[in-house]
Amino acid sequence: MKWILFDKDGTLIYFDESWNRIGMQLVDDFITEYRHDINDINEAYRALGIIEGKIQPGTVMASGSLQDIINAFNNLTNKNVSQWAQERSQALIDQRVPDNKRVEGVYSTLKTLKSRGYKLGIVTSDTKKGLDQFLKATETTQFFDVVIPTEAHAVEKPNPDVLKPLFDQFDVEPYEVMMVGDTPNDILTAINAKLGYSLAVLTGVGEKEDFDQANYIANDANEILTILDEVK
């Protein structure tokens, strides 16, 4: 194994509650904007994974990609709301104030991985602005050889093309790469891109039962140091 790719939110930092606030606001705005096209508003909230004002784990609003969310919106309105959803989501993200609280011990883990000669990267559904804020707040810029954000209209996990910047810039084969993340989409990215291994962590939105396709499941990203001893 030569490369380790990390998701950001819920993997390197504890899940950022600002994402939940954005998700809730996006759904509220969607319901308001398209209320005349929705048959049952209460059922629409439930279908999107919101119960008693909270986003439930394992639902589309908890761990789905923006395209997954748009598909759910389209199903509820029987129309294409893609442009509205993309623009509103981007506007909310641009206003976001992230938490960026590092998972305990992860700074030391990244330092150890670099000392062992691994190349490290970040693949996130956050924007470049959010990624830059994370790197500055956590003081981890020096550890990463490639960082891949997701801007508006770009491909998203689990589309394997999201890893194109890695394979375009570096001489590396998919089997030499491990993906570490906290959602099923992270694991599916590894599968779709035919990466060597995938590691699911439980510091984010995913539940253990969501990760039956992962090669490994760990409580947090720090356990990768032990796991890598097994995959050499």
Automatic annotation (TrEMBL):
GO molecular function: hydrolase activity
This protein's name: HAD family hydrolase
InterPro entries (UniProt xref): HAD-like_hydrolase_sf, HAD-like_sf, HAD-SF_hydro_IA, HAD_2, HAD_sf
Entry superkingdom: Bacteria
Higher taxonomy: Bacteria, Bacillati, Bacillota, Bacilli, Bacillales
UniProt-listed Gene3D superfamilies: 1.10.150.520, HAD superfamily/HAD-like
Entry keywords, A to Z: Hydrolase
Hydrolase keyword on record: yes
Organism: Staphylococcus marylandisciuri
Endoplasmic reticulum is among the record's keywords: no
